[in-house]
Structure formats: C-alpha cells, structure tokens
Amino acid sequence: MNVTIDAHSTIPPFEQLRVQVIELISTGDLVAGTRLPTVRRLAADLALATNTVARAFKELEAAGFIETRGRAGSFVRPQDFPERAALEAAEAYAERIHELGVTREAALGYVEAVLRR
Where does the HTH gntR-type domain lie (predicted)? Predict the structure, then answer.
C-alpha cells in the first residue's frame, strides 16, 4: 500500500491516511477484498502511533470503505463510487462550513448556486 504521511502538514496524520486510502480505493489500486496491513504494521511502516492508524481505520470502516473481520484483519469493501464520492464531498463541505461558521441556510444556498451553473 503506497501511502506517505507529511509530518509537517497542517492536516492530521490520521486524516492524511484516511484520504489516501480512499483515493487508492477509488482509483482501483486497492480493490474489493484486498487485505490491508495490520494497524501495528502500518503504524510501524509510517512511523505513526498505533492509535493514529486505528482511528483512520475506524473512520474508514464507519464510512463503508473497509471492514474488519476480527483476527482475520481489515479488508477493502466493494464500493458504489458515485454515491459514496458524493457523500464524502458533502461531509468535507459540511465540516469546512462548520469551521467557517457559515449558517446552514447560506451553505445550502452556495451549493444550489453552484449546481445551477
């Protein structure tokens, strides 16, 4: 799995890992059924704390990108990309809007304006 973490980035390491795994899945570099490295192995490979990798895996699992099968490990789940990609984009947008302090109504107005273009 070709993932790199930029220790100097303002983006937290767990988020860098999460986004890169999603990208690998969406491009087909990680196909459904692929077994991922263990949390400990990936943490060691990337020089991260195991809790950092575990958090990324937990979020990937919650979003439906991977599934954990107990001691068997974590695996890439089959994806329905247009809907999943739209949901990920909406989640990122909502998070950023919240950070900026923009109201829900204004945020929805921006989306509607862009979709009308």
Answer: 11-79
Specify the CATH number for 1-79; select among 3.50.50.60, 3.10.450.700, 1.10.10.10, 1.20.1540.10.
Answer: 1.10.10.10
Both tokens of 86, joined, read 């739209």
Helix axes 39-46, 50-62, angle to 10 degrees: 120
The predicted-structure confidence for 25-43, as pLDDT tens digits, reads as follows 988 899 889 999 999 999 9
Could you report the per-residue pLDDT of 77-115, keeping only the tens digit for each? 987 767 667 777 888 899 899 999 999 999 999 999 999
33 contacts: CB under 8 Å, gap ≥ 6? 75, 76
Residues comprising the chain, all counted: 117
Scanning the structure block, which residue is given the tokens 């969406």?
26
